[in-house]
Amino acid sequence: MRKLLVILTFFIGIAAQSQEAAESPKYDKTATMYKTYADFQAKKGVPAGQYFSFSWSSWGKNTLHTYVNGKEQKFDINDYWGFTVGDFLFRSRQNQIRIPVVVLNIKNSKVFYCEGYMFLDMIRADATSGRSSRTDDSIFYSDDMEGDIYEITKLPKKEKGNPELAGMIECVKKGEKRRGYQAQFNSFYECITTD
User: Fold this and answer.
1) Secondary structure (3-state) at 185
2) Within a domain: 180
3) Which residues, at least 6 apart from 51, have a Cβ–Cβ distance to it below 8 Å?
């Protein structure tokens, strides 16, 4: 009876692991670097191999780690306009924002982004979510794909007279009143991903 219980427990464990593996996404990790937005539009990127990790420093150095023909390559993403990993488009350092940002939505002639580290973490782990250690703005916007990138909290002041963005501005103002970083992030994320 004890052997049967051990064998049964073993097979249940394997079945649970198989189910978890079946539910985990498998992201395309092919990375391509783009010096300019024009290069991105023309699909003239620098093939960067298979993404496997990233690193960053507090002074703003961001490095994408890939494998090319079995050898590790490192790309300083601040030297590029942006890059792709699979279907995800990231923009690199702009203004004082010293992190990569991932394009989430284009809405009312604005481009909206999210902090890129959590997406890079999610892709690396083939997970449904990533983690981040940021405790300040993690949602951003720009006027276009080449424009300066600003924190979403600057939208109400910078776009005050723009009637197309009135609903978005109200949404951001409500989000700013929420307590705690995670609650604000969730509100801002909802503002830019829903109509």
Assistant:
1) helix
2) no
3) 29, 30, 31, 64, 65, 66, 85, 120, 123, 124
- Residue 146: which domain range? 26-151
Number of domains the chain is built from: 1
Give the Å distances, CA to CA, from 121 to 35, 76, 93, 168. 23, 17, 18, 28
| pLDDT at 148 > cutoff 60 | yes
| pLDDT digits 0-9 by tens, 69-114 | 999 999 999 899 999 999 999 998 666 667 888 999 888 789 999 8
For 134, residues 6+ apart whose C-beta sits below 8 A from its C-beta are: 99, 115, 117, 181
Question: Is residue 67 helix, strand or coil?
Answer: strand
Residue recorded with tokens 């249940």: 12
Q: Is the whole model's pTM more than 0.85, yes or no?
A: no
- Of 85, 49, 83, 84, nearest to 67 (Cα)? 49
